Amino acid sequence: MRKHQTSMTAIGIAIVRGIESEKPEGERICYDPYARQFVNGFLYNFVRFFDKLGYSEIKGPGVMGFLAARERHIDEFLKLQIRAGVKQVVILGAGLDARAYRFEELDPLRVFEVDHPASQVSKKEKVESIFGKLPTHVVYVSIDFNSESLEKRLLESGYDKSRKTLFIWQGVTQYLTPAAVDSTLAFITQHSPVGSSVIFDYMYPTLLDGTVKHGEVAKMRSNRWMSGEMMTFGIPEGAVKDFLEKRGFTNVQDAGQKFLHDTYFHGLNAKRTVAYGYAIASAIVK
Ligand SMILES: C[S@@+](CC[C@H](N)C(=O)[O-])C[C@H]1O[C@@H](n2cnc3c(N)ncnc32)[C@H](O)[C@@H]1O
């Protein structure tokens, strides 16, 4: 992360959500009506133009499909946890995530948006310009996961460790050190009650080390000088259950390429692809 720059990956993902959300109701995989407003209009239209020409699929086949399915899958898990009586939601590396604003069921709860200060300043400005003010149910917590304590920052921001909590960690683990991933998971198991939950996506290390070649990973690598964000962390295919059980979780679910495609891509979308090498894990604190 660059110190004074909004995360470029957060902007890119919001653009993908915006493009998907423009599709008719029966066709889109996910829906975020605010994504378009969170990003610069020129940049949005530029990416949208090349996407319509098929450029995204040439550069990273199935990546748009994975990102849309990831948003949807995590939304479905969030709905499930709301029904199961979650009392707090912590969005780790929130970027331009709009769940706190698009799920009205979250209004009576407390939502903590935790992010790098560089990303958070402009997010808050955007939220104020879209809604006229910052919503009272959202608490903005700034942090550098690689060097600061999540425990300290969340506890001093009013996080209540006695409340059943859902932790959403979308599009972040791949940019962290293994120690930062471990300490975040340890925070979750040590500071939230039994029945709390986590959902996060991760990459297979074979993409990171180049064993499996992906255009978008190579592009991230060559753009590192500009974004300051590099993919470094992965969990091998099939290993996440063991990984999370060893860290105090149970009921581990792993949604990879096939699951996501079979679950969300039907009818007009049946021919769309979901990239191999990315997966979404969810688990419950035991
Ligand atoms: C790919 S974006 C994902 C944003 C959002 N979760 C989403 O899916 O739209 C990565 C996010 O992780 C945050 N991030 C990356 N490295 C971080 C760090 N070391 N400390 C805090 N936040 C970090 C960035 O600020 C950014 O918001």
Word description of this protein:
The protein has helices at 8-21, 35-38, 41-52, 55-59, 63-83, 99-102, 117-131, 150-155, 178-190, 205-208, 215-222, 224-227, 240-245, 257-264; strands at 88-92, 110-115, 138-142, 165-169, 197-203, 249-255, 278-285. The radius of gyration is 18 Å and the shape is globular. The chain contains 14 helices and 7 strands. It has one domain (8-285): Vaccinia Virus protein VP39 (Rossmann fold, 3-Layer(aba) Sandwich). The two termini are 33 Å apart. The model has no long low-confidence stretch (mean pLDDT 92). With 286 residues, the chain is α/β, with parallel strands linked by helices. It binds S-adenosylmethionine. The site of S-adenosylmethionine has 21 residues, from helix 1.
Instruction: Name the quaternary structure.
Output: single chain
Mind describing the biggest β-sheet? Answer: 7 strands, mixed
- The percentage of residues in β strands lies in 15-25%
**Could you say which overall geometry the principal axes of the C-alpha atoms support?**
globular
User: Percent of residues in helical segments?
Assistant: 40-55%
Order of strands, main sheet, comes to 3-2-1-4-5-7-6
Q: Would you identify the CATH H-level superfamily?
A: Vaccinia Virus protein VP39
Order of helices and strands: HHHHHEHEHEHEHEHHHHEHE
CATH architecture: 3-Layer(aba) Sandwich
Hetero ligands: S-adenosylmethionine
How large is the radius of gyration?
A: 18 Å
End-to-end span in angstroms? Answer: 33 Å
Which structural class do you get from the secondary structure elements?
A: alpha/beta
CATH topology: Rossmann fold
Output mean pLDDT. 92
